[in-house]
Amino acid sequence: MPRVGRSIVPPPVSVSIMQRIRKSGREKVEGITPEDLARVNDILRDIGGPNVVWGSKDILDVWIAESRMEAERRSAHRLVIATWALAGMTFVLVLVTVGLIVATVTHA
To answer: Residue 107 — pLDDT band, cuts 50, 70, 90?
Structure first.
């Protein structure tokens, strides 16, 4: 990203993309739950031991990493479903094409 003075200027985003994002509500992330916080604290305690103090940034980093992994799993699952749907529709198209060929040959 380009820098202007001390601040970072984000790249321009088209208005239509931003409108679609706002309408879908996808830019909102659910907050960290107490269960998530306890689980992340346990992970960090296992890593650093009882004498290491982790800051809120470290906790947030682990939680964001988990959130990204979950989003990638959901995305991969949707991709698998779409791929199977495409394969199924291709098979149906092949069957219809063979049927049309057979109908054309028998009536010609």
So the answer is: confident
Question: 3-state DSSP call for residue 51?
Answer: coil
Question: Token pair 């970072």 is at which residue?
Answer: 8
Cα(73)–Cα(90) distance, integer angstroms: 26
* Domain limits, the chain: 32-107
Answer for the pair 62, 40: CB distance below 8 angstroms, yes or no.
yes
Q: Retrieve residue 64's tokens.
A: 């964001």
pTM of structure: 0.58
Burial of residue 61 (number of CB atoms within 10 Å: 0-12, 13-18, 19+): middle
Residue 19 contacts residue 29 (beta carbons within 8 Å): no
What is residue 48's DSSP assignment? H
- Helix segments in 11-55, DSSP class H: 15-24, 34-48
Residues 6+ apart with CB under 8 A from 70: none
Return phi, psi of residue 4, to 5°: -125, 110
Helices and strands: H and E segment counts in the chain: 3, 2
